[in-house]
Structure formats: C-alpha cells, structure tokens
Design goal:
about 250 residues; mainly alpha
Length: about 250
C-alpha cells in the first residue's frame, strides 16, 4: 500500500462520507467507505484500514446513547453476530481477493436495492414483537456481512424496525450493537493479517478526516436534506459496486 496521490484522492472522500453518515445521518451510509477503498486497495486492507476508524466513530456515538438501547435486542444481535463473524472468517480463508472484491461489490449493489425499495414503500415491515430467534438470525447475517464488507445494517434494520422502538432507543441499539461487533472483529482481522503497519499509519493520517466528517455530519443534519445525501451516496455506491464486480470477474 502506497501513500500516493491516488490513495489520498480516494481515501479522504471515502472516510469523510463515513464520518458524515455516522455523525448526522444514522450511519447507514458509513459502509460506503469500504467499497470505495477497495477500488485502490486489496479488499482485506480496505477492511482493516476502516475498522479502527469505524471504532473511533462508534466510541464518539456511544457516549451520546449510553444505556438508552433496547437491551434484549442488543443482546441477541450481538450473540448472533459471533457465529456470523466466524463464518465470515472461514469464508475469507477459503476464497481469494477477487471473490471478496466481488462480494463487497455485490453487497454494495444489494444495499442500494434494499434502501431503494424501502424508500419506495415496496418493502413493508409489519409490526412484530421482540423475538430472540429472529434476533439471533439477524445477528448471524449482520455479523457475516459486517465481517466481509462492514455492511451489517440491513439485517439489523429488518429486525428492529418492526418492533416500533422509539427513534432514540433504535439508534442507541444499533450503535451499541455495532460497537460490540467491531470490537469482536478485531481478533479475527488481526489473526488473518488485515492490519499492517501501513494500515495503522493510514489510520493515524485519516483520523482527523474521520473526526472532521463526524463534525460536518452533526452540523449538516439540520441543513442538508437526508434524501439528497442518501441519493448521492447510493448513486456512488451503485457505480463503485458495479465497478468492483466488473473488476473481480475480469
């Protein structure tokens, strides 16, 4: 990994988008940074580079939502995420970079499709009571997706939204869940070599960008329409995801 002009031209906007999403738009678009970075880095390095930055953002968000989460939902989601993370690690060991690149691209395209059908109202999540079994299954799916692409949000949304949680409790539950998941991922990421001296140096260089993105996101929350931010992010994700799929197949 070289810290050249191309790296910073891609990494700075990617990390800034993640910070803005985390700071002002519920964090759903935070995942965009990984596929963008995967355009110029090996997928494992892109994942390893982003994890410490995401954890730093998690810590900043966790303070604001401390003990305001729905504990039963957070508990089962985290428990389910553990085997999902192990499945992700097994998948990584059994595949090659092109397959991981393809999966990151496919997840990006699927993420855009999921958010689009929700926005159009084609996906109606009926009201449902808390279910430990559904929570475990959602946690497994989220843990796997989070391990291979930092995109574990959709399964969690599909589990939490039907419960009709207050928006603060909903946000707090996602924050504590992904804080725990990202913390758990540190061990397999380190064991599999996702962290290098270069990725850690990149973390130091990009930390101000991540924190600056969170600061911008907090202030943009009341100024920039959510639909505009997500529309631009989803278009970018669709293009980047398609490009990753094309490169992996080529």
């Amino acid at each position: 990994m070289e810290f050249d002009l191309l790296f910073f031209a891609v990494a700075i906007p990617a990390v800034m988008i993640a910070g803005i999403a985390k700071g002002g738009f519920g964090g759903a678009a935070t995942f965009a940074a990984t596929p963008i970075l995967a355009l110029v880095l090996e997928p494992a390095l892109a994942l390893g580079l982003m994890l410490p930055l995401l954890m730093m953002m998690d810590v900043a968000a966790l303070k604001a939502y401390w003990r305001r989460w729905h504990a039963p939902s957070a508990r089962v989601l985290i428990l389910g995420a553990v085997p999902g993370i192990l499945l992700g690690a097994a998948f990584y060991r059994a595949t090659d970079p092109d397959m991981l690149r393809f999966l990151i691209g496919a997840v990006a395209v699927a993420f855009v499709a999921f958010q689009t059908v929700r926005w159009l109202g084609w996906l109606q999540l009926r009201r449902a009571e808390f279910s430990p079994v559904k929570g475990i299954l959602a946690g497994v799916a989220s843990g796997f997706a989070s391990f291979v692409s930092h995109a574990g949000g959709p399964p969690v949304l599909m589990f939490l939204l039907p419960q009709g949680l207050h928006k603060t409790m909903f946000q707090a539950t996602t924050v504590v869940m992904f804080f725990a998941v990202n913390l758990i991922k540190v061990v397999p990421y380190a064991f599999l070599g996702f962290f290098t001296a270069e990725t850690l140096m990149a973390n130091v260089l990009l930390a101000p960008v991540a924190l600056g993105g969170v600061w911008v996101g907090v202030r943009a929350h009341a100024l920039v329409p959510e639909t505009l931010f997500f529309a631009l992010t989803h278009v970018l994700l669709l293009v980047v995801g398609a490009r990753l799929i094309w490169v992996s197949l080529g």
